[in-house]
Write a structure and sequence with these properties.
mainly beta, about 120 residues, 7-stranded mixed beta sheet, about 50% strand, 4-stranded antiparallel beta sheet
């Protein structure tokens, strides 16, 4: 059974930092590209960042320079370090595991709220 479990969300003031983590099980983790997506109230889910199986990273323009995605293939985890947070970063953040030709997997999400 495949599971992606996110953790690390919470309430933070503007300008603050949070680190999200996603623990994966039931997949050959090192073979998957891992990503983070987010969905704000009333908006569609949007892509935030991806790290490929080879370790290459890509970021949405709105978070580039503020967020850093990383993975630990020994622990089957992918993290998202979020700095200089803004109120518009408020959303439910979802972990994603993707491999060409296979069904993508999603976590249950973790809430991030940026507010003073």
């Amino acid at each position: 059974q495949v599971q992606l479990v996110e953790s690390g969300g919470g309430l933070v003031q503007p300008g603050g930092s949070l680190r999200l983590s996603c623990a994966a099980s039931g997949i050959t983790f090192r073979s998957y590209a891992m990503g983070w997506y987010r969905q704000a109230p009333g908006k569609q889910r949007e892509w935030v960042a991806t790290i490929t199986s080879g370790g290459s990273t890509n970021y949405a323009g709105s978070v580039k320079g503020r967020f850093t995605i990383s993975r630990d293939n020994a622990k089957n985890t992918v993290d998202l370090q979020m700095n200089s947070l803004k109120p518009e970063d408020t959303a439910v953040y979802y972990c994603n595991a993707d491999r060409p030709g296979l069904f993508p997997y999603w976590g249950q999400g973790t809430q991030v709220t940026v507010s003073s």
